[in-house]
Design goal:
globular; 407 residues
């Protein structure tokens, strides 16, 4: 009598166990690079996670060589970013730094390729979801358990993250992933709870950027879901929305023209911001000066920040932070690469946007909304953060993966 006939379950295939371990490793990777444990490990956890990922990616390149090459040839616009970053060492004011950071950017793109080789769309979203969910749980623990490191001296929640904005960005990714998995029908109690937790933590950061960006990113979600499930419902939602936009637009025009209203100022004030956007305009002025100094080829990738001018050092001292980007992706690209920088950035965004919209138009499952939401979130971040053309960046990985991942 065999083991099966004796009532024993057949052994689980070894490949299934290996796949489960692989998913767990990626979950921990996303948790680490979200900087969720920064308050306890400084940048060590993130740095070592990226170092390990780079080595694994380089090792597995030989196993998946043909897939890597095919993805690179099919995504030349994304590959042009690290290539140009490394080439910029030829004219960079800090050649060694530009080449080194360019290699890191190349590995960041290749990590996104490796994720898409190993996972299909829903599998990728699951891995990202659990990584960010762990980050959310640690954020709560860091704020509520002694010693309470998760709340700063003015009451803003930052969890185990270095700043409230970094925590807000991670929670936005959690909300996006949890929402898409909920609509897909995966662990609905868990994903709904995680989405609510993420939204609560975003509010507790008191950070305007993630609060506003999560609302704008999720706003197309009902339309996208209706488009997949019912064209009639989608048409109704679009019609009602157009009517609402017309009414709001007319009211805004009358208020501004005849009553001198300031809707932009009022919107910023509602999020605790003023027109300088918490000092970002000072950084943008410095970026403009840098562009005027080297308009054609720029300073080289990340080279400006190796030895910033005295004005930038004064801004750092005033804010008490070691600022390393201009909080505007287009200006950052222009300072690094000159006139070609914003062009390369816009080309990449355009390709990702077209692919995500085309995927949605042919979608049969709600999980296929995820790439569009990721693309929208990155587009929203670009004018005020630096999600793209960024070496060892969580959002750089998410953006490329969303644009190329298989169904």
């Amino acid at each position: 009598m065999t083991d099966d006939s004796a009532g024993r379950l057949p052994a689980k295939p070894l490949n299934a166990d290996i796949a489960l371990v692989g998913q767990a490793v990626w979950v921990l990777f996303f948790f680490a690079i979200s900087m969720a444990a920064w308050q306890y490990t400084s940048s060590d956890a993130e740095r070592y996670a990226w170092l390990l990922a780079d080595f694994i990616c380089a090792f597995l390149f030989f196993r998946y060589q043909s897939q890597f090459i095919n993805l690179a040839l099919a995504n030349l616009v994304f590959m042009s970013w690290p290539v140009f970053a490394m080439v910029s060492a030829a004219w960079s004011v800090a050649p060694g730094a530009s080449f080194y950071f360019g290699i890191q950017l190349l590995m960041t793109v290749l990590v996104a390729f490796l994720l898409c080789i190993q996972f299909r769309l829903e599998q990728l979203v699951v891995v990202v979801f659990f990584g960010m969910f762990l980050a959310a749980l640690l954020a709560v623990a860091a704020a509520l358990l002694p010693p309470a490191r998760g709340i700063d001296f003015v009451g803003n929640w930052r969890g185990g993250f270095p700043t409230k904005n970094v925590m807000g960005d991670a929670m936005v990714l959690l909300v996006i992933s949890a929402s898409c998995l909920f609509l897909q029908g995966r662990w609905r109690l868990l994903t709904a709870s995680a989405a609510v937790l993420g939204l609560v933590l975003i509010v507790l950061t008191r950070s305007a950027t993630p609060m506003l960006s999560v609302m704008l990113t999720l706003s197309p979600l009902p339309f996208a879901y209706a488009l997949i499930r019912s064209r009639t419902v989608f048409s109704l939602l679009v019609g009602l929305s157009l009517i609402l936009v017309a009414v709001v637009g007319t009211g805004t025009y009358v208020a501004v023209t005849y009553f001198g209203a300031d809707p932009i100022g009022a919107l910023l004030a509602s999020f605790g911001k003023e027109r300088s956007l918490t000092g970002r305009t000072l950084l943008w002025d410095m970026a403009q000066q840098a562009m005027d100094a080297k308009p054609w080829l720029g300073f080289g990738f990340n080279a400006y920040w190796v030895d910033p001018p005295a004005g930038m050092l004064q801004i750092r001292d005033a804010f008490g932070q070691k600022i390393t980007f201009f909080h505007n992706n287009f200006l950052e690209a222009a300072v690094a690469f000159g006139v070609i920088g914003p062009v390369l950035l816009i080309m990449g965004i355009f390709v990702a946007a077209v692919r995500s919209i085309r995927r949605l138009l042919h979608a049969t499952d709600p999980i296929e909304i995820w790439p569009l939401l990721i693309t929208i979130q990155v587009i929203i971040q670009c004018p005020v953060q630096n999600p793209l053309l960024a070496n060892h960046s969580l959002w750089q990985v998410m953006f490329v993966a969303a644009a190329i991942v298989r169904r």
